[in-house]
Specification:
- By secondary structure, the chain is an all-alpha fold.
- The protein has one domain.
- 64% of the residues lie in helices and 0% in strands.
- It has five helices and no strands.
- Helix 2 crosses helix 4, helix 3 crosses helix 4 and helix 4 packs across helix 5.
- Keywords: DNA integration, DNA recombination.
- This is ResA resolvase.
- InterPro entries: DNA_brk_join_enz, Integrase-like_cat_sf, Integrase_catalytic, Tyrosine_recombinase_XerCD.
- GO terms for molecular function: DNA binding.
């Protein structure tokens, strides 16, 4: 079953627009630390929605994921970001790092969404 389109814009159209924008930015001396692709925007959107406190099931629907496990990938990235803010050093023993991430995840889940 083909997905219904909201706008008559193809993936190729979006990639062309982004490519032209990146080329224009490069001409102005602007560079990007990550590839600028539709996929990058998709990940960025998902992460911003998590930061804004959107429920995971709502994000799953917005992202068009059939399985919640596909959406949960973003919560793992989110947990790593929180760990980085708390200066977690991954040079520590693996078991200790895993325990710390689990603890941080519990703290985040307990205090999520922000009030």
């Amino acid at each position: 079953m083909e997905k219904a389109r909201i706008w008559e814009i193809t993936d190729r159209t979006v990639r062309t627009w982004l490519s032209e924008a990146v080329e224009s930015a490069a001409a102005d001396g602007v560079t990007f630390s990550v590839p600028v692709t539709p996929h990058t925007f998709r990940h960025s959107y998902a992460m911003h929605m998590l930061y804004a406190g959107i429920p995971l099931k709502v994000l799953q629907s917005l992202m068009g994921h059939k399985s919640i496990s596909s959406t949960e990938v973003y919560t793992k990235v989110f947990a790593l970001d929180v760990a980085a803010r708390h200066r977690v050093q991954f040079a520590m023993p693996e078991a200790e790092a895993v325990a710390l991430i689990k603890k941080l995840t519990e703290v985040v889940n307990k205090n999520w969404p922000p009030r």
